[in-house]
Design a protein that fits this description.
With 225 residues, the chain is mainly alpha-helical. The chain has seven helices and six strands; from the N terminus they run αβαβααββαββαα.
Length: 225
Amino acid sequence: SRYADYFERDRDREDWHLYDIADQGETGQEYMSRYLFADPCADDWRKIRLKGVDATVYVYLLQRALAEMAALLGKQEEEVVWNRKADATREAVRSRMWDPERGFFFDVDPRTGSRSPVAAAVGFYPYLCDIADENHLVALRDHLLNPERFWTPYPVPASPVDDPCFSAEGEWKGRRMSCPWNGRVWPMTNSHVAAALARAARCLDPALRPWAAELICRFVRLLFH
C-alpha cells in the first residue's frame, strides 16, 4: 500500500493516473528511443520524467492486487478505494496512452500530454490485464505480428525494426554497448509479451492462439544454443 501511495504521490504530480519513469536505468531497459522523447540526452543517465506504459501497467496490477487482498481481509472500504484507483488508471491508459490512429499504446510526455512518436515492446503490456480490450486488438495484428515491426525471426525485439535507432547487433549510436534495448531480444520483455499475447488469445480473440503458441516456441528456442 505504501508503495502504491508513493507512486501516486511522487510519480504522478499531474494527477493523470499515469506514472513516471525517472531515468533509463530503473526500468532495466536502457538505451532506447523512448527515453530520448523525454530528453535528447537521457542516454547520459540524466534524470527524466516520462509517463511509461510499463510503469503504469505495473501500478495498475498492484492496485488491483491490493483490492483483491482487501476483499479477502474483509476490508470493504479499502477494496472500494483500490478498485476506484485502478479503474482511474485503466481509463487513463486507454484515453491518454492509446493512439487510435496509430493503433498502439505509447508513453506520454508529462509536460505536454503528447504521446511518444516511437513505439516499444512495452506497448503490449496493457494486454497482460484488462486494460486492453477488443477495441485494441489492432496493435497485436498490425504491430506485434508484423515482420517489419516486432515479429522478427526470434521475436520480440525491445524496439521495433523500423525504430530510428534500431540495432540487432548491440550498438547504440554506432557504439557497442553491454546492455542496449534498441533492438536486442530480452527474456524479461519476451516473457511479458508472450503472457500478454496468450491472455489476449484466451480472453479477446481465440484466433490469436496459434500465434501465441508460436511466440512461446520461438522464445524457448531462442534460449538454446
